[in-house]
Amino acid sequence: MTNMMETTQPRSLTGWLGPLPIFSAPPQAKLPERVHRQVRAQQDATERLIGWLQLTVVAIFAALYIVAPKTFTAHDTFQPVPYALSAYFGFTMLRLGLAYRIRLPDWFLYISIAIDMALLFVLIWSFHLQYEQSAAFYLKAPTLLYVFIFIALRALRFEARFVVVAGLAAAAGWLTLVGYAILVDPRDNMITRNYVEYLTSNSVLLGAEFDKVISILVVTGILAVAIMRARALLVSSVAEGVAAHDLARFFSPEVASHIVHSEEIGVGIGELRDAAIVNLDMRGFTGLAETCQPDQMMQLLASYQAEMVPIIRKHGGSVDKFLGDGIMVTFGASRMTETYAADALRCVEEIISVARDWEKRMLAEGRPARPVNAAVASGCIVFGAVGERDRLEYTVIGEAVNLSAKLEKHNAVAGTKALATSEAYDLACRQGFTPSARCDRLDSAGVAGVGHPVDLVVLG
């Protein structure tokens, strides 16, 4: 088993920010496209979440506007807020609908940020009209705090660049409002240096406004750094999830799960397990392979394994290894169970039945096929990793492993399709196995490579 536990750091996608150290990420290996696809899928789901949250925000703004007292009548004053809220509602619905249909391009997301901030600052700007005050009146509106909601919304995507753009847009928007309040009436100098006057009038204290801008930028910077760290963890997590999924293609799901969740993996660490070992083989495959074209032989193996492996997994078996046309399966080794022997015999019964139908179907199609043999042995085995540090393989070791392999070959001698040791058969019956057909016993059978007679049961 190739060591697949190497750690790969995710690549930063914020290179556009330049070589500034605060936004730099450590050198990282190129991630495969399938990992990037998983990350993009997460981002697409996040964009839909952001759309719903934006819809909630516009609903809150509309509710606040409706309940807020007004000092003017609808006929004598222009009201920008209803128009702004209506336009924003339409854009939010468009954005939400597109998020469910396509992957939103970056330029659209930047436009969305600009519209978010424009809505907020138009609402704040309108306050001096709504309450018939000078423009500096809106600078004291607590509605500015909503800017942090819009910045935080962009954090959900785990891309620092969108947070940075949102923060810069917010800072620029507030500076624009401050400039408007100061310059809208050149005859009225609104600037003051008196803090009490600032709090008790519509005067403008530049230091206080700059503090707000600095707060926006600092929060933006902190969020951007936090998101870069969180994105590294996100990509790493996705990469590990994809790797775990791919491991299950090379190993049984049980072994893949064991690798992913083990605290330590190394040679010299083993576990004693009571298990059943099944060996499958196509009788006469070697001679058939000598007469087949390579592609034809591989297609035969693929068809055979595609029939057998789902049955093995259905009954809780774990494929230990493929040995050409041979398949070694364990029950109760990688995943402990109280019915390992019964599961193994149920699996063998179904395999023999399915293999018979598969052979007939292949021959009817004019494709080569051979009968499938099986053998079952049970006992105490050792489950663990063998090899050296850069080349590991999870496997099982024990007398039952060797005996099962020898019994599979004994099928040719005995003229049977499936054999089990009497010990495995009796244990399976105690665990709830009921044979679907008569099973004959072969007492004290001589098996090649076994130094003592073995009591056997012919299955099916």
From TrEMBL:
<dbReference type="Pfam" id="PF00211">
    <property type="entry name" value="Guanylate_cyc"/>
</dbReference>
<feature type="transmembrane region" description="Helical">
    <location>
        <begin position="107"/>
        <end position="129"/>
    </location>
</feature>
<feature type="domain" description="Guanylate cyclase">
    <location>
        <begin position="276"/>
        <end position="408"/>
    </location>
</feature>
<feature type="transmembrane region" description="Helical">
    <location>
        <begin position="204"/>
        <end position="227"/>
    </location>
</feature>
<dbReference type="InterPro" id="IPR050697">
    <property type="entry name" value="Adenylyl/Guanylyl_Cyclase_3/4"/>
</dbReference>
<feature type="transmembrane region" description="Helical">
    <location>
        <begin position="49"/>
        <end position="68"/>
    </location>
</feature>
<keyword id="KW-1133">Transmembrane helix</keyword>
<feature type="transmembrane region" description="Helical">
    <location>
        <begin position="80"/>
        <end position="100"/>
    </location>
</feature>
<dbReference type="GO" id="GO:0004016">
    <property type="term" value="F:adenylate cyclase activity"/>
</dbReference>
<dbReference type="GO" id="GO:0009190">
    <property type="term" value="P:cyclic nucleotide biosynthetic process"/>
</dbReference>
<keyword id="KW-0812">Transmembrane</keyword>
<dbReference type="InterPro" id="IPR029787">
    <property type="entry name" value="Nucleotide_cyclase"/>
</dbReference>
<dbReference type="GO" id="GO:0035556">
    <property type="term" value="P:intracellular signal transduction"/>
</dbReference>
<feature type="transmembrane region" description="Helical">
    <location>
        <begin position="135"/>
        <end position="156"/>
    </location>
</feature>
<feature type="transmembrane region" description="Helical">
    <location>
        <begin position="163"/>
        <end position="184"/>
    </location>
</feature>
<protein>
    <submittedName>
        <fullName>Adenylate/guanylate cyclase domain-containing protein</fullName>
    </submittedName>
</protein>
<keyword id="KW-0472">Membrane</keyword>
<dbReference type="InterPro" id="IPR001054">
    <property type="entry name" value="A/G_cyclase"/>
</dbReference>
